[in-house]
Amino acid sequence: MEHTQRILRILEEREITGYKVSKATGLSDSIFSKWREKPSSKIRSEVLVLIADYLDCSVDYLLGRTENPNLNK
Fold this sequence. Notes:
By secondary structure, the chain is mainly alpha-helical.
């Protein structure tokens, strides 16, 4: 699974829109539309950190390196 697909799935599971994330983080709302159209594993580290902070989870969780979303474990 591409990293962007994982992020979109998490947003869907938590019922969070890309628009809401973009407003809270300063990311472009269009980034989420791009990811839906063309999933990718290429995400800038700054973007991953912003999304992880917003979702209160680890970057490793967003990357699929762990199934544990907690930051402390």
